[in-house]
Design goal:
Elements lengths: L2 H8 L3 H16 L5 H8 L3 H13 L3 E4 L4 E4 L2 H12 L1 H17 L2 E8 L3 E9 L13 E3 L3 H10 L4 H9 L9 H14 L2 E4 L6 E10 L5 E11 H4 L3 H20 L1
Antiparallel strand pairs: 1-2, 3-4, 3-8, 4-5, 6-7, 7-8
Helix pairs in contact: 1-2, 2-4, 3-4, 6-11, 7-9
Length: 258
């Protein structure tokens, strides 16, 4: 059974979970899909999948092409996205810092929102066009504990160690770290205020992350600033990049508290 099916079965509102899974799949694929393909990907019964799709079409969140018999996201999702963007201060506040760091260090920089131990979602980004460009976009989601951001979440999120271990065991890495080594890096992030993934998540790629708190340093961990680049190219600049990311994250935490 795949993780999507597990999530739907565990949900207290499975109909909503199915609809959300369909929307995420169509958004991720970026091209129209048929009922059978969607049902197979999500582990749904085709008749149930069709029911969900028809409901989403009625709400103008999904469009149906009668000629190809395929479904794709419809413009209705933009209404929801615009409403969220209007109330979210983080993306607007983070963008200047992301642009500045990306340009200065030749990195891809991301602003991500943290959803507990479940996942993170990219809400802002900047690409320098120099050494490295990550194939991602605003709206992309990743497992919460993966890469440098995961070390920040483990260090500052206030989660139980046994729950963290359970999620850690299910992560996929290019070069998986040992649990004890990863814990040591989590502790380093707690002490220094910045986390580093040196090629574990993506071989040859270094990821640096600094936590951002909603409501200031005394509030809850809500976001993170992330810089990503080729490890060899960043080696000499790593201390300076870590400092730049920490300063920007600290400033954002203060602004989010205002």
């Amino acid at each position: 059974m795949n993780s999507i099916t597990d999530t739907i079965k565990a949900s207290k509102a499975p109909a909503i979970a199915r609809a959300a899974a369909v929307l995420r799949l169509l958004g991720k694929r970026g091209s129209p899909m048929g009922v059978q393909a969607i049902a197979r990907e999500l582990g749904l019964v085709p008749s149930t999948c069709l029911y969900v799709l028809r409901a989403l079409v009625a709400e103008e969140l999904v469009a149906f092409d009668a000629d190809t018999k395929r479904y794709a996201l419809d413009a209705g999702v933009l209404t929801l996205a615009r409403a969220w963007l209007r109330k979210d201060r983080f993306a607007d506040l983070a963008q200047p810092a992301l642009d500045r760091i990306a340009k200065e260090f030749g990195t891809t920089t991301l602003g991500v929102q943290v959803f507990g131990l479940d996942h993170i979602i990219v809400t802002a980004m900047s690409q320098s066009g120099q050494n490295f460009q990550l194939s991602t976009q605003v709206g992309s989601r990743f497992p919460a504990l993966v890469s440098a951001t995961g070390r920040c979440i483990a260090a500052f999120g206030g989660h139980a160690p046994e729950e963290i271990r359970m999620r850690f065991d299910g992560l996929r890495w290019d070069e998986p770290p040992e649990w004890d080594d990863w814990l040591a890096e989590v502790e380093d992030a707690r002490e220094t205020g910045v986390a580093v993934d040196a090629g574990n998540y993506i071989a040859g790629v270094t990821v640096i992350a600094a936590p951002v708190w909603k409501g200031g340093r005394t509030g809850a961990l809500s976001h993170a600033l992330v810089a990503i680049g080729i490890g060899a190219a960043l080696r000499s600049e790593l201390p300076r990049l870590k400092d730049a990311l920490k300063v920007a994250a600290r400033s954002l935490s203060e602004q989010m508290a205002e």
